[in-house]
Design a protein that fits this description.
134 residues; five-stranded parallel beta sheet; Rossmann fold; alpha/beta; 5 strands; 50% helix
C-alpha cells in the first residue's frame, strides 16, 4: 500500500510511541510504502532538525537518510488553485493526485477537512492503524 505521510505523523512517529510510531514500523517492515516529493522531504528535514534539538539522543540524520533511500520519491504537478486553507499542505494533495495515491495519513485539521478531494482519503494515524495494520 502506497501512502503520503504528513510531516506531523512522521515527526510524531520518530520522537514518540503510538499510532504514528506503528506506521513507521510498518514502513520499516515494508508493509507500506511512503510516496514523497523533494518538497515533502525538505519539509520533513526542516521540521525534524528543529525538533531534534529538544531530543538530542535521537539520530535524526540516520532516519531521514532511510526515508530518502526507501521511500518512493516522485514529482508532482502544481495544483491550479489552492485546495487547503493552509497552502503549505497543498504539496501533500498534489503528491497524492499526481501519483495516484489514495491515502494521506495526517492529523492536520486542514488536510482532514478536504478528505475525499479527487478520491483521496485523508485519514488520522489511529484510524489508519485500525483499518490497515491490525
Amino acid at each position: 500500500m502506497r501512502i503520503v505521510l504528513d510531516t506531523n505523523v512522521l515527526i510524531s512517529g520518530i520522537f514518540f510511541h503510538g499510532p504514528s510510531y506503528r506506521i513507521l514500523q510498518a514502513w520499516k517492515q515494508k508493509k507500506i510504502q511512503f510516496v514523497i516529493t523533494p518538497e515533502i522531504y525538505a519539509e520533513y528535514s526542516r521540521v525534524a532538525e528543529v525538533i531534534s534539538t529538544k531530543y538530542p539522543g535521537i539520530d535524526i540524520a540516520e532516519i531521514l537518510n532511510l526515508i530518502a533511500i526507501y521511500s518512493e520519491i516522485v514529482q508532482s504537478f502544481t495544483l491550479s488553485e489552492p485546495v487547503c486553507e493552509d497552502p503549505d499542505d497543498d504539496k501533500f494533495i498534489a503528491c497524492a493526485i499526481s501519483n495516484e495515491v489514495r491515502y494521506i495519513v495526517s492529523g492536520d485539521k486542514h488536510l482532514l477537512k478536504i478528505s475525499g478531494y479527487h478520491g483521496i482519503r485523508v485519514i488520522k494515524p489511529q484510524e489508519f492503524c485500525t483499518e490497515f495494520l491490525n
